[in-house]
Amino acid sequence: MVAEALPKTLEAAPLVLGLQPAALIDNVAPVDWSLLDQIPGDRGGSISVQKDELDHILKELNTHISVAPLKKMAGGSVTNTVRGLSVGFGVATGIIGAYGDDEQGQLFASNMGFSGVSISRLRKKKGSTAQCVCLVDESGNRTMRPCLSSAVKIQAGELSKEDFTGSKWLVLRYAVLNLEVIQAAIRFAKQEGLSVSLDLASFEMVRNSKSELRKLLESGNIDLCFANEDEAAELIRGEQEAGPEAALEFLSRHCRWAVVTLGSKGCIAKHNKEVVHIPAIGESIATDATGAGDLFASGFLYGLIKGLSLAECCKVGSCSGGSVIRALGGEVTPENWQWMNKQLQLKDLPVPAIHN
């Protein structure tokens, strides 16, 4: 299969690179209980579906949607983080991955390009682009149904040293199915002097492939690790000490920066011997929790890039994470970037010098 990559010789290397092996389109819609009752599987969480199931859900959505139209956007954890850094913080970012030669693939590439993210490391392949249906109930809880099985994605052998040259950070999301390409990306990143940030993805992912994950963490190649409370609990399940503090301690033994987010209770973080506990931002109304952790990572990384203290990095993350949950989907609206900037001002934190 021949993969086309756009030329990147004329552009400066992005400061932050994200690895999203398979480009993904999110189909986000507000729904009521009656539709959720017709979708196979439990409410909440994420269960993979086949193409015919995805088409069935999208067809059902078209007959049910009355409150607001279906929103389609480039999705995926890493996508959300690098797009947030670009649009909300003015940081030069790029994305590495593959997209299909279909309508969804074109939408992914154009959405990222429009957001200022360099797409010259995206490979176009013959085949379909991954999709996910994100159903959001009136409480802001989401039910995810991703369709990934037949989607094109980048392979480890397609990466090159030049993809990473000149950048400073590589952003990853843990997935055991993508472990080979993740490991290849880390090898190139370390050869080129990049720091590596890893998100633990989901408690199911941690539970089902804990030994591979712990081996990755214990390699010493992960500089920054983000875990939410459920992922943290799963990571150290069965050990004498449990709880987020014990998970933070485990992560900090292997990573320079460790962060455990605690939802409405804020977050805890550790760097060297410093530990901070930062409360959640109180002024945010949750419409849709999609992307909260991804945008927290955007803010935290921006803080590190700007040389802020550990506590300040957490506070910026709290503001950016709070901004995305005020609307549907993992892409922050212009109004909510303005809301974030106001929160940063109120907390005497640096406001990005860009116009959203």
UniProtKB/TrEMBL annotation:
CDD domains: adenosine_kinase. InterPro entries: Carb_kinase_PfkB-like, PfkB_dom, Ribokinase-like. Residues 59-329 form the Carbohydrate kinase PfkB domain. Keywords: Kinase, Transferase. One of its GO terms (molecular function) is kinase activity. Pfam families: PfkB. Belongs to the carbohydrate kinase PfkB family. This is Carbohydrate kinase PfkB domain-containing protein.
